[in-house]
Amino acid sequence: MSNDFVKRYGGIYEHSPWVAARVNVLLDGAVADTELLASLMADCVDNASTEKQLELIRAHPDLAGRAQVAGELTAESSAEQSSAGLDRCTAEEYEKFQSLNAAYREKFDFPFIMAVRKSTRAEILQAFASRIENDYAHEFETALTEIHKIARLRLAALEGGQ
């Protein structure tokens, strides 16, 4: 059960199968619905050490970044970024994303994270420009909140709810 569970849910949190592994231990073979899984996974992240949370945040790719251009995103990240049109940026938009990615990483030492599904490139750039003005603690918490949104969307898609 353990390997199957982690195989199925290990990608819900970007490059962080430890979240699924911990939930699997908590469930101890019990069946959980999508809402309970989402809640348990979020609790695991929220109760992890700050270092583990930072590792999770840093596991995310830049939006419209080099990994996307090189085709190195996870299937989930690729689909999410494509749904927002980030794979169709104009040269000017691409340059804005690169500039904001660099400035954001310089300030916070982790990537800008936003659940981009159903957002436009303009909305993402506006959020990017606004959030770069935040302080570290606020942005750290915002990143975790956005990661939980991404995880819920991934879980719903995996379970056929989206």
Describe the protein.
The chain is mostly helical and 162 residues long. Helices cover 65% and strands 0% of the residues. It has two domains: 2-55; 60-153, UraD-like (Orthogonal Bundle), CATH 1.10.3330. It has helices at residues 2-9, 17-27, 34-46, 50-58, 66-69, 75-83, 91-108, 121-131, 136-158. Helix 1 packs across helix 2 and helix 2 (17-27) crosses helix 3. It is globular and about 50 Å long.
The CATH superfamily of the largest domain bears the name Oxo-4-hydroxy-4-carboxy-5-ureidoimidazoline decarboxylase
User: Using only CA atoms, what is the Rg?
Assistant: 16 Å
Tell me the domain tally. 2
The end-to-end distance, rounded to whole angstroms, is 25 Å
Overall pLDDT confidence:
92
Give the number of DSSP strands.
0
Largest sheet: none
What's the level 1 CATH class of the largest domain? Mainly Alpha
Q: What is the fold named in CATH at topology level of the largest domain?
A: UraD-like
Supply the CATH architecture of the largest domain: Orthogonal Bundle
Number of helices, where a helix is a run of at least 4 consecutive DSSP H or I residues: 9
The helical percent reads: 55-70%
| SSE ordering | HHHHHHHHH
Uncertain segments are none
Query: What is the approximate shape?
Result: globular
Please tag this protein with its features:
162 residues; mainly alpha; UraD-like; 2 domains; 9 helices
How do you describe this structure in short?
With 162 residues, this protein is mainly alpha-helical. The protein is built from 9 helices and no strands.
